[in-house]
Amino acid sequence: MRKTVPLPWRAPAWLPLLAGLFACQALATPIEGAELPGEPAIEPAIEPPNLPLRNTAIIATGSLLFAAYGQSKWWDTGFGGGFKTTNEGWFGSDTDYGGADKLGHMYTSYASVRLLTPVFEAAGNSREASIGLAGWTTFGIFLGIEVADGFSRNWRFSPQDALMNVAGAALGVVLEAHPDLDDKFDFRVAYRPSPGSGFEPFGDYSGQRYLFVAKADGFEPLRRNPVLRYLELGVGYQARGFDPGGERRRDLYIGVSLNLARVLADVAYGGRMHSTPLQRGTDRLFELVQFPTAVYSSHTLD
User: How far apart are CA 211 and CA 253, in angstroms?
Assistant: First the structure.
């Protein structure tokens, strides 16, 4: 694993990929027999033509994009010297980034599963098959990148990074496979530029805050309450001063935020969730990104 800029965040490689996957989800029209996210699965009666070829194209495109980018940006000095590993630690104050890079690995793998699943569905796969394809594709791509790091001249394989990749992919699969849990919980990232840094959400670790969020709207008794239905409870973590430098501190957060997906559904869609391609795209955006609609209380670990 690279010591200067951690894997998914050392350069904005994820920006075009995430943007493209968001666009695919927002614009894709479910094929006949396909279900909306969160609805009971309805298997298509007839498998679309060339489905294996479509799936191969999706997997190959993602893999080749990462391989090409990695070759030009990460592994440009080549490979050699055998397979090398490194122990980066986890969330300690003596680590390079206080654990922000580890949550970054978990988050990007999680987001990959959440965004690839509707892409595989749009290609004609059943809901169940799409979740499996998204999970294994994510696992394979990120494991491949970590292994390539181990054989590269400049970097090392980090078992901590690999485990967080698996954890993120697993969380994505669980929430995709269980709509009742997906209605209740989110894993999000919030970003605010740290002092002395420009707008660099993929490299400014001190500005990244990761949040596990529980949504009142996902619990039937709270959903009936005209006020509580719009609220969320979040628990978060942020490490500051590790990069680009300064006083190091690790903070835990607890906060209340506004459920923007529920607000949008009630204001623009008559209370219906996931009712149009555009709404499905915005719903997924609100599930993955924490917008500045929250108030927090913090507790420092240092």
Answer: 8
